[in-house]
Amino acid sequence: MNCLKAEEQFSAYIEDELDYRAVRTFEAHLNACESCRREFTLFHESLDLLHQLPQIEPSTDFDTALKARLVDTQVESIPLWGRVLQPLHGQIHLVLSGVAVMLMMVAGFYFFQKASINPESVEIVATPRASREALLVEERRIEEQRPQFPLAVPSQEPQSLVSFPESSVFDLQPVRRNQQPQLSAFNLQPVRRSQQPQFQVFDLQPVRRSQQPQRLEQNYILQTINYTEAPTGGGL
Amino acid sequence: MPDLDDELMKQCQQGDMEAFDLIVRRNQIPLVNFIARFLSDPDAAEDLAQETFVRMFKAIKRYRSGTAKFSTWMYHIASNLCRNELRNRGRRGRFFVDNVITESSSGSESTEEDLIATAPAHVSLQPGNQLEQKEREHAVQSAISELPDRYRLPLVLRDLQELSYEEISNTLTLQLGTTKSRINRARLMLKDKLRSFVEST
Predict the structure, then answer these.
(1) What distance in Å separates residue B1's CA from the closest CA in chain A?
(2) CATH code at B27?
(3) Is A49 in contact with B28 (Cβ distance < 8 A)?
(4) Range of the domain at A17
C-alpha cells in the first residue's frame, strides 16, 4: 500500500467499513510510515473539531414568521376571483345587483352610441393617392399653362415668330418642328364667324406635347358626395 | 423503525395541519443548522429554512411515502435552495463568525467583561473557555466555508447532520461510491485547512 492509497481509506478505517484484510494492510502501512501516521492523527483531530461545533438555535420568532409565510402561501393558492369575492361572502345579492347595474349601463351606452350615428347622411369617398390639396395644385398648374384667347401672343415665342398682318384671316402661330415632328407646322382649326363672332376666324393654338396637360380624369378625385342631393335623381 | 416524519406527512395529506406543525418543530433545528453551516450565514439560514418548509407545505400532495426517506426529501429541497442562494450571491458566502471573533480577539478587558456579563451562568466563570470555543468555532467554520460546494455539501450532511452515506447519495443524487470518496476528500481538505490551528493548539 502506498501513501495515496492509505489516505483514501482514512474515512473507511474510522467508520469501520474496511474488512479484516484491508484493516491489517492499512495498519501495517501506518506503523511503517511516519508521515501517514501524522496525517491520520491530524485527520482524526480535525474531524473531532468539526463534530464539536455548537448547535445553532433558531430565533424565537421562527415559528411566527413561518406561519405568516404559510398563510400567504394558502392565500396565493386561492384563485384570484375567490380572493376578490372572499370579503363579500354572505352579501352575494349585493354583488349580483352591482353586476346587473353595470351590464345595463354598458348595454345602454352601446345602443345610445349606435343610434347617434347615421352613416347614410354623408359619405366621403377618399382616394389613397391624391389629397384635395394636391388636386388643387394640379388644377392650378394646368390653368396657368392653358393659352388664353386671343392666342398667338408674340412675347411668348419671340425667337420663332413668323409675323402676319393683323387683318389676316389666319391667325397663325408657329410651332417648332422639333417639338412636333409628326405634325404640321401649324395647327389650324376653322371657326365660323357667324357662330362665334367674338373669336378669330381661325383658332390657332400652339400645341406642345411636352406641356400638354394630363387629363384631369386620370387623377383620383377626393370629393364629398351628398346623397340627399344626388344629381342622378336616385339609382344609388 | 418507522419514520415518524413520514407518518406525519401522511396525516398532512389527509388534512391534518397540526401534523405539519409537528414536522416543523421536529426539524427546524437540524434544518437551520445545516443551512447555516453550509452557507456560513445564520441570518439567511432562518429565511431559507422557512422557505424550505413552505416548499414542503406546497408539495404535500405530491409527497410519495416510501419512495425516499423524509429527511432525504427535506435536505434535497434545502440543498437546492442553498445552491440557488449561492448562485444568486455570486460568491461563496460571508463568514458570520468573523465579527464576533474580531471583537473577542482584540484583547481589551472590556470585551472579556462583556462576555462574562452576557454569557450563561454555567460558563460565566470561565471566560477563557468561551473565547477558546469561539475561536475554535471560527477556525472550523472558516475552513468549511473555504471548501468547494460539491465537497462542502456532503461533508455537512455527513459530519454535522449525521446522515448515512445512502441518504446523502439520494439527497444529492450521487452514486454511493462518489459520495464516499467526496466525503473523504472533503475531510482531507478540511484537515489541511485546520493544520496550523491544530498544531498551534
Answers:
(1) 22
(2) 1.10.1740.10
(3) no
(4) 3-51
Q: Is the pLDDT at A218 greater than 60, yes or no?
A: no
- Before A119, cis peptide (omega within 30)? no
The answer to whether A52 faces chain B, any CB pair under 8 Å, is yes
A46 closest CB neighbour out of B50, B160, B190 = B190
Query: Taking CB atoms and an 8 Å cutoff, what residues of chain B touch A58?
Result: 28-29, 32, 46, 49
- In a domain, residue A36? The reply is yes
ipTM of this predicted complex?
0.80
CA nearest B6: which of B58, B63, B59, B56?
Answer: B63
Q: Which DSSP letter does residue A123 get?
A: E
CA B113 to each of CA A52, A131, A179, B127: distance values in angstroms, whole numbers, following the listed order: 25, 94, 118, 8
CB contacts < 8 Å between A and B, how many?
A: 94
Domains of chain B: total? 1
Which of A42, A50, A73 lies closest to B54 in CB terms?
A73
Q: What CA–CA distance (Å, rounded) separates B178 from B158? A: 14
Residues in chain A with CB shorter than 8 Å from the CB of B159 are 47, 50-51
Nearest CA in chain A to B189: A43
pLDDT of residue B158: 96
B131 — contact with chain A (CB < 8 Å)?
no
Q: What is the largest CA-CA distance in chain A?
A: 149
**CA of A87 to nearest chain B CA: how many angstroms apart?**
24
Residue type, B3: D
Q: Domain for residue B158, yes or no?
A: no
Q: Per the domain annotation, does A19 fall within a domain? A: yes
**Residue A51 corresponds to which cell in the numbers above?**
463534530
Q: Report how many domains make up chain A.
A: 1
Q: Other C-beta atoms within 10 Å of B3: how many?
A: 13
Cα distances (Å, whole numbers) of residue B95 to A18, A154, B49, B201? 37, 106, 18, 22
Classify residue A176: in a domain, yes or no.
no
pLDDT tens digits for range A167-207: 445 555 555 555 544 444 455 555 555 555 454 445 555 55
Strand, coil or helix: what is A124?
strand
Q: Does B133 touch chain A (CB under 8 A)?
A: yes
For residues A191 and B150, give the distance between their C-alpha atoms in angstroms, rounded to a whole number.
111
- Hey, what amino acid is at A33? C
Which residue is closest to B193 within chain A, CA to CA?
A46
- pLDDT averaged per 10 residues, chain B (length 201): 83 88 93 94 91 92 82 94 89 48 39 47 57 89 94 96 94 95 97 92 77
